[in-house]
Amino acid sequence: MDPVVIPILVAAIVVVFLVAATVRIIPQARRYNIERFGRYRRTLQPGLNFVLPVADRVNTKLDVREQVYSSDPKPVITEDNLVVNIDTVLYYQITDPRAAAYEVADYLQAIDQLTVTTLRNVIGSMDLEGTLTSREEINARLRAVLDDATGKWGIRVNRVEIKAIDPPNTIKEAMEKQMRAERDKRAAILHAEGERQAKILTAEGTKQKDILEAQGTQQAMILRADGESKAVELVFQSVHRNNADPKVLAYKYLETLPHLAKSENNTFWVIPGELTEAVRTVTGAFADQSSAGAPVSVQREEEAREGPSEGEGGAPELETDPTLALDAVAAADEAAKQAAAAVSDAKAEADAAGEVQLPGRRPASGD
Asked: How far apart are CA 330 and CA 197, in angstroms?
């Protein structure tokens, strides 16, 4: 090898080394702290930077983006002497790379220990119920203390969140029982309110139903009474207008007696005392008609034998059928037999039932 080439190669290597040691390219969101002979010189910003080789060196490389730090669960004692494990999440950002590198040895460990001590101070003034329901207050107090303490370290604490609060298992069981009891209480209250509303609505519906039924019954009775009143009035007017004979009324009275005995549910009924009077009236009416019919027919037969009288123009008169009197007598007898048979049947049925009640007047069978 040529002796001239060796020095040239050595010089080239030295130049390359010097250039590499002089030029520094810093990525975005990164900061490099430079020391010159062991003393802080400056902080390199993102981009192309030049330093003195051998004299300057990079001490720390820091990321200025927002960082997330999740601490391990730490035991904390509450005001009512219960131990709970609290897990926190910290969001921070380096604002001063020089202070973060030279003001504190390990800023993550410092922030973790500061978070634990602050939590113990805050939680120690609260009971378990307040701890579980006051997360926002705890977060705000933690952030205020950490931000004040880490400001001189070149770190800004943006947020502090409590990730989990784990009470002891016995407390969890007691809380579950309490929650179950509260739910059962609310369910019982809601069920009782529902039953109360249902009973109120049912009572109101029954009330309205009874009122409507009573009004309907009242209207029906009024209409029925009006109809019966008009019917009685019409019957009364018809009887008085036609001047009905008491004999006809007595006969109608006898006609209604068989209907009284036809009912299947009647085991006890009373024979009225006026029955004998009605039978007498009907029998007397037919007897009077038969006795009055015989002389008239005999007189008419004699007049028919003698012939027409003088001065009457010789007009013949209609002959009366001699069987009319016999028919009237037969009809009267038949009516009396039917009335007596109806009375006998009624008495027989009443005697069979064992509940016959006769009035103090003469019995119907003796007429």
From this structure: 79
Q: What is the mean pLDDT of the chain?
A: 75
Instruction: Tell me which DSSP letter residue 95 carries.
Output: S
Sign for the pseudo-dihedral over CA of 255, 258, 263, 265: positive
Higher pLDDT among residues 99 and 132, named by residue: 99
Rg from Cα positions in the chain:
66
CA dist 351 → 274, 297, 337, 346, 355 (Å): 20, 47, 21, 9, 7
Look up residue 203 and give its amino acid: A
Measured distance CA(31)–CA(64) in Å, rounded: 7
Write out the two tokens for 234.
């019409």
Cβ atoms of residues 3 and 36 within 8 Å: no
Could you tell me the pTM of the whole model?
0.46
39-44 and 30-36 as β-strands: parallel, antiparallel, unpaired?
antiparallel
Q: State the sign of the Cα–Cα–Cα–Cα dihedral 325, 328, 334, 339.
A: negative
Instruction: Pick 353 or 45 by higher pLDDT.
Output: 45
Specify the amino acid at residue 345.
Answer: D
* CA dist., res. 155 & res. 164, Å (int): 25
